[in-house]
C-alpha cells in the first residue's frame, strides 16, 4: 500500500514490478459474447453498450496493428522509458476459436522482437464462462514470454442478479475460472460494479468477500453508470433504476475495500465515460477526489483495506 493511503493502489505496484512508468493500450479485436450472439442470450449485459465496454476501434475500420501502433506512439510521448500493457478490452476475448486467439495475439510479435520494445504485459478481458482449456493453454504459453493478466468480470456475487442483468453465468463459474487461471500462472484481475439493480450495500460486501476468498491479485471496481445505447438506459428512463450519489458510493466502497485481502491491488476504484454517453450519475468529481474521499472515510472509521477480511488465501509474492 502507498504509505499515505489505507488501501493498495496500482501505480506503486507497477513501479515495483516493472521499474518504469507503465500505461495501457486499449485494443479491440472484434470479439463477441455468448449473451449477445444467441448461444446463451441476446443483447448483452444490461449495462454494457454496443462497443462491449471498449473502444469500438475495429468496427470503425482500425486494424489491430494500427491500434497498437497508435497506442504505442501515444505512450512514447510520455517518456523514453514508458512501458505499455497491451489490453484486449472489448467484449470477451477468449470467446473465439483457438486459431483466432493465436492470430489476434500474433499482432504483438513484431513489437516483442524490437530492441526498443515497450510492451511489458498482456491483458485479456473475458467472461468466466468463455475460458476454454485451449485458450488457457495459449495464454499460459504467452505468459512464459511476458506477464499475462486475465481481466475477469464477475460484477456482482449473486446468481439471481447475474441472471437478471443478463450476464448468464454464475458465481461458481467465476470462482472456477479464477482458480484455473491462477493455477496456470496467470494474474487475475476481478471486476465489480457497485449499485447494480437489486444489489444493495450488503451485496458490495459479499462481492469483495468472494474476491478475497478466490485470491485474485487485482480488483477493478466502479459505481453503476447508465450509458446510452444500453438496456439499462430504458430501465432508468422508466424509473426502475436508481444510481448512487458520490457519498453513498464511497460508503459502499469503503465496506468493499475493508473486506478485500490486504495484498490485493486496486487497479480502479471509480469509472468514467464520455459525457455524451452518460445518462447518470453526474458527479462532477475527478477520480482523484473519489480516492481521497475513500481514504478519508477509512481513516474516520479507523480501518483500512483488509480490516474486515474474514479469510483469504495468501497471495504468491512473485505474482503480486
Your description of this structure?
The protein is an alpha/beta fold and 320 residues long. It has a single domain (10-319), classed as Aldolase class I (TIM Barrel, Alpha-Beta Barrel), CATH 3.20.20. Helices cover 36% and strands 16% of the residues. The protein contains eleven helices and nine strands. It has helices spanning 10-18, 64-76, 98-105, 109-112, 133-143, 159-164, 171-183, 201-214, 231-237, 246-259, 287-301; strands spanning 22-27, 83-88, 119-126, 148-155, 187-194, 218-223, 226-227, 265-268, 278-280. The strands form two sheets. Strands 1-2-3-4-5-6-8 form a seven-stranded parallel β-sheet, sandwiched between helices. It has a two-stranded antiparallel ribbon with strand order 7-9. β5 (187-194), α8 and β6 (218-223) form a beta-alpha-beta unit. α8 (201-214) packs parallel to α10 and α10 (246-259) crosses α11 (287-301). The longest helix is centred in the last third of the chain and has 15 residues, at 287-301. The radius of gyration is 19 Å and the shape is globular.
Count of the domains: 1
Per the CATH scheme, the topology name is: TIM Barrel
State the end-to-end distance.
Answer: 12 Å
CATH architecture: Alpha-Beta Barrel
Number of strands: 9
Biggest pleated sheet:
7 strands, parallel
**Secondary structure tally, helices:** 11
Anisotropy-based shape: globular
Rg from alpha-carbon coordinates: 19 Å
State which percent range the strand residues make up: 15-25%
Proportion of residues in helical segments: 25-40%
Across the major sheet, the strand order is 1-2-3-4-5-6-8
Parts with pLDDT < 50 across at least 5 consecutive residues: none
Could you say which structural class the secondary elements and strand pairing correspond to?
alpha/beta
**Could you name the CATH homologous superfamily?**
Aldolase class I
What letter string, H or E per element, gives the SSE order?
HEHEHHEHEHHEHEEHHEEH
Amino acid at each position: 500500500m502507498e504509505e499515505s493511503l489505507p488501501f493498495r493502489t496500482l501505480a506503486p505496484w507497477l513501479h515495483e514490478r516493472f521499474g518504469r512508468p507503465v500505461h495501457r493500450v486499449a485494443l479491440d479485436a472484434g470479439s463477441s459474447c455468448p449473451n449477445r450472439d444467441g448461444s446463451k442470450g441476446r443483447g448483452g449485459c444490461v449495462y454494457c453498450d454496443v462497443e462491449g465496454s471498449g473502444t469500438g476501434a475495429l468496427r470503425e475500420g482500425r486494424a489491430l496493428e494500427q491500434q497498437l501502433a497508435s497506442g504505442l506512439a501515444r505512450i512514447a510521448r510520455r517518456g523514453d522509458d514508458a512501458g505499455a500493457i497491451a489490453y484486449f478490452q472489448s467484449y470477451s476475448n477468449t470467446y473465439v476459436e483457438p486459431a483466432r486467439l493465436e492470430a489476434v495475439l500474433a499482432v504483438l510479435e513484431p513489437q516483442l522482437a524490437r530492441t526498443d520494445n515497450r510492451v511489458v504485459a498482456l491483458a485479456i478481458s473475458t467472461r468466466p464462462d468463455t475460458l476454454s482449456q485451449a485458450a488457457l493453454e495459449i495464454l499460459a504459453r504467452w505468459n512464459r514470454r511476458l506477464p499475462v493478466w486475465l481481466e475477469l468480470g464477475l460484477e456482482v456475487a449473486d446468481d439471481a442478479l447475474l441472471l437478471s442483468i443478463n450476464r448468464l453465468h454464475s458465481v461458481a463459474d467465476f470462482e472456477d475460472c479464477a482458480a484455473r487461471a491462477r493455477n496456470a500462472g496467470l494474474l487475475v484481475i476481478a471486476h465489480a460494479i457497485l449499485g447494480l439493480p437489486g444489489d444493495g450495500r450488503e451485496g458490495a460486501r459479499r462481492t469483495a468477500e468472494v474476491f478475497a476468498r478466490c485470491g485474485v491479485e487485482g480488483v477493478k471496481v466502479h459505481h453503476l453508470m447508465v450509458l446510452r445505447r444500453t438496456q439499462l438506459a430504458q430501465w432508468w428512463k422508466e424509473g426502475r433504476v436508481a444510481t448512487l450519489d458520490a457519498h453513498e458510493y464511497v460508503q459502499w466502497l469503503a465496506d468493499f475495500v475493508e473486506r478485500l485481502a490486504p495484498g490485493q491491488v486496486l487497479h480502479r476504484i471509480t469509472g468514467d465515460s464520455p459525457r455524451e454517453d452518460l445518462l447518470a450519475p453526474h458527479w462532477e468529481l475527478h477520480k482523484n477526489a473519489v480516492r481521497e474521499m475513500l481514504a478519508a472515510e477509512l481513516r474516520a472509521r479507523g480501518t483500512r483495506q483488509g480490516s474486515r477480511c474474514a479469510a483469504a488465501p495468501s497471495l504468491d509474492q512473485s505474482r503480486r
